[in-house]
Amino acid sequence: MDKELLKKFIQGKCTREESQNVMSWFDTQGEEKFLELVENDWHSWEEETSEEGNQLKHILGKIHTRISEKELNLVHKEKQIPNTRTTYKPYSYRKYSLAAVISLLLIAGVAFVIQFSNTPKVEKKVELKRKKIPLGQKATIYLSDGTKVMLNAGSSISYPEKFSKTSREVSLEGEAFFEVVEDKIRPFSVISGDITTTALGTSFNVNAYQENDHIEVALASGKVLIKDNNKEVKRTVLAPGELLNLDLNTGNSNKENFNVKEKLGWTESLLYFNDAGAKEVFSTLKRWYGVEFTFNREMTEKWKYSGEFKNKSLETVLKGISYVKDFDFVFRDGKHIDVYFK
């Protein structure tokens, strides 16, 4: 056993692992072996105890006092017992040292408890990474477990660089499609506004843009459990092809089947509209192409449009929609378009 380690142990400066090593060694070697190593040094070691070890010194002083009282009592008793065969010998230094060592072991144990049990544990803060996608762009990232995340324009995701041993959790603003690597021990959860979507191994889409008055979760494969964070009991399980729509104004939700092109087409660069109002059409174009629209008058919700475009320029898309809905548009520059409803 290293003397420096014993010194740290007696002074209460050992780490948890070091203290456990010393106590294990003591259990196998016993007091005598311990005594051989420390009996000539422990007084000086006590003097070198740091200011942080004042509590240890206080306990040590009390132990010394008790040992001294026991010595005096033993000496007094020996003097009163007549013995013709032996003469009285002072209480030996070795016995004193052995008692001190045993006491020190108790002190070190106390110090160990003081250091590791009474000290408040500081939980390691989990550092989160954040990926934000600008308007007009899309991106694909892979999480530490291999899960693939496709982020739509104007979306952001926060996630730990490495998931814990018990769970996988991310936070989403906007829209993303998840292809989750199966892990039966660690569920995968996406927190998006008022709902949490949990899966083991599956693929699903979450649409939770802040400007929308609803949140949608569409399941492509596998199975997910959706929990309304504002209600303790409200839970919904989706099967493939099902979608949950949560109305943020009323708090009501409904489950329905969904059109794959409409909800998942964006992952394949397909722009799809199905009886979409003017507000939905132009807000979608704003995100997809990263532009701003100015209108000559307020948009009406009676205006509906259906159509699809795959890998088309904004000008081509606007021309296609304008033929049906009868409006004009002018590009002021690459980022600003004026729209004139007739």
TrEMBL record:
Domain FecR protein: 136-224
Membrane spanning residue stretches: 96-116
Source domain of life: Bacteria
Keyword Hydrolase listed: no
InterPro entries (UniProt xref): FecR (IPR006860), FecR_C (IPR032508), Ferrdict_sens_TM (IPR012373)
Pfam family, one: FecR
Keywords, sorted A to Z: Membrane, Transmembrane, Transmembrane helix
Domain Protein FecR C-terminal: 271-337
PANTHER family: PERIPLASMIC SIGNAL SENSOR AND SIGMA FACTOR ACTIVATOR FECR-RELATED, PROTEIN FECR
The name this protein goes by in its record: FecR domain-containing protein
Organism field: Splendidivirga corallicola
